[in-house]
Amino acid sequence: MTGRLLAEPLRHPIIRTGRTKGTIHTGKDEETRRFERIERFDRIGKINQSEDSKRFGSSRKTGRAGRLSSKGAGTADGNGHIEIKGARLHNLKGLNVRFPLERLVCVSGVSGSGKSTLVQEVLFENLHRLLQKSKKRTYGKDPVLIGCSGMSGWERVQRVLEVNQTPIGKTPRSCPATYVGFWDEVRRLFARLPEAMMRGYGSSRFSFNVAGGRCEVCAGQGIKKIAMSFLPDVSVVCEACDGKRFNQETLAVCFKGRSISDVLSMSVDEAVDFFAFHPTIHHPLRLLQDVGLGYLTLGQQSPTLSGGEAQRIKLVTELAKTRWLNGPALKTTRGEVATPLSKRDPPLQGDGNEDTVIAGGEKDSKLARARTGSRYIHTLYVLDEPTIGLHMADVEKLIRVLHRLVNAGNTVVIIEHNLDMIAEADWIIDLGPEGGSRGGRIVAKGSPEIVARTQNGSYTAEILHHFLKERTSHR
Ligand SMILES: Nc1ncnc2c1ncn2[C@@H]1O[C@H](COP(=O)(O)OP(=O)(O)O)[C@@H](O)[C@H]1O
Ligand SMILES: [Mg+2]
Ligand SMILES: [Zn+2]
Fold first, then answer.
1. CB 322 within 8 A of CB 403
2. 69: CA distance to ligand 3 center in Å?
3. What span, in angstroms and rounded, lies between the C-alpha atoms of 65 and 54?
4. Contact partners, residue 198, CB within 8 Å, separation at least 6
5. CA 19, CA 72: separation in Å to the nearest integer?
6. Fold that domain 1-158+378-475 belongs to in CATH
7. Distance between CA 342 and CA 448 in Å, rounded?
8. Relative to the CA of 121, which ligand 1 atom is closest?
């Protein structure tokens, strides 16, 4: 069994506020509420040392009680919920289910109990349809719902997104820096250097995806593919640029002694220090570091990332967008606002988000606005068994990112049987009791503590009970 795990487990706002008699955030404003989540997060890591701790400074001494000691019934309703009525698909037995919003919700249960059916085919699919319709502002008939008789409370959600471990695109032109989206900012930083201004280089000069500053022999790839008959293609380092991806003139422009090519070959860890005084670049780099990807190279080709790495990069990309939620942070030191989507590197076939299912076509003004910070978008993330193939150290990192997404005001729904993950969820919906036709019912629901106390044949409840007990005794 994994676990004993998170030395400092997260706390659960739902259960904790159970002490305040049912209502979750009575009399607390947005800020306090966010702080509380952020604070509890703090306990498992140093994640929020930078901005958040400054922001919330002195007020963070309140409410330190560990969540396992708290009493009272948890409630899911503090921030509203999506309610699905009469879910009846495959083996689901006409379920009425509530998914609390702005929470990390975990759907558990034995294999074949109906988790994917409920989350993917009913929740995700219907939400997707409803959102598309509301986006088009067609006032006609409501879309036909699949596998359920009704769905309410979804209106606060503006976007639904599935995050999986499939590779990020197929194009070698995508890399962590471009995918997460801070590469534009790096290019603009280079374009502002005196040397670049003197030569009249704009930021596109520092792109390896458009002609101008890149090495044209390898088209900015640094490698060339040689087709071999009967054998797979062979890659060789481009001899014109020696793998540097840019031409000599471009490479002559240096920031703190490093060329744009040097930056591409930096690791995230190095780059965090290198760009320490450029918040718009530094922040996403810190996020990558926080989720344990400090060793990645900024220019590593996205298709070469492992499944777990790809998944965390996708999540960091989402997290990087939510940064702007906390204030006018998108202003750079010089006071300008980050690049609108239209001015970013030209979209490339297969670059970016195609592996994530996106409601209503992502490349729209909403995302642009999310990126430029003028509006924050409540996103519901769906993850089906995200810990598959992950080492338990990576599971912990994943849990942290998911909680940060929730802290930023989003909703995360995961299907999971990993106990570490289940124990750190805000809300559990346990399906079962068995697989197939003997499953498809809700056997337990509530915060981990509540589920652990449930005794009605829920396997999750039983295992969680021992798990939590053992964990408290280890502290
Ligand atoms: N397309 C389908 N047609 C018929 N039965 C299905 C279909 N998809 C899943 N099922 C059945 O529904 C039950 C629940 O499946 P699923 O939701 O995938 O379970 P879980 O994700 O919890 O492992 C299983 O018994 C499965 O065999
Ligand atoms: Mg499944
Ligand atoms: Zn070249």
1. no
2. 61
3. 22
4. none
5. 6
6. Rossmann fold (3.40.50)
7. 44
8. 17
Ligand 1 atom index nearest CA of 384: 21
**Cross-sheet strand order for the sheet of 104-109:** 159-162, 379-384, 411-415, 104-109, 427-432, 441-446
CATH classification (class only), 176-310+324-350? mainly alpha
pTM for the predicted model, two decimal places: 0.74
What lies within 8 Å, CB to CB, of 354 at 6+ separation is 169
Q: Where exactly does CATH 3.40.50.300 map onto the chain? A: 1-158+378-475
How far is residue 307 from each of residues 401, 402, 475, measured CA to CA in Å? 16, 17, 33
DSSP 195: H
Distance (Å, whole) CA 345 – CA 363: 13
- In this prediction, residue 114 carries a pLDDT of 97
> Separation of 23 CA from ligand 1 center, angstroms?
36
CB of 280 within 6 A of ligand 1: the answer is no
Domain with CATH 1.20.1580.10 in the chain: 176-310+324-350
Question: Over the stretch 219-253, which tens digit does the pLDDT of each residue have?
Answer: 999 998 888 888 888 889 999 999 999 999 999 99
Nearest atom in ligand 1 to the alpha carbon of residue 114 is: 17
CB atoms within 10 A of CB 73: 12
| Whether residue 113 has its Cβ less than 6 Å from ligand 1 | yes
C-beta 146 within 6 A of ligand 1: no
314-364 pLDDT, tens digit each: 999 988 887 544 433 333 333 333 333 333 333 333 333 322 222 233 333
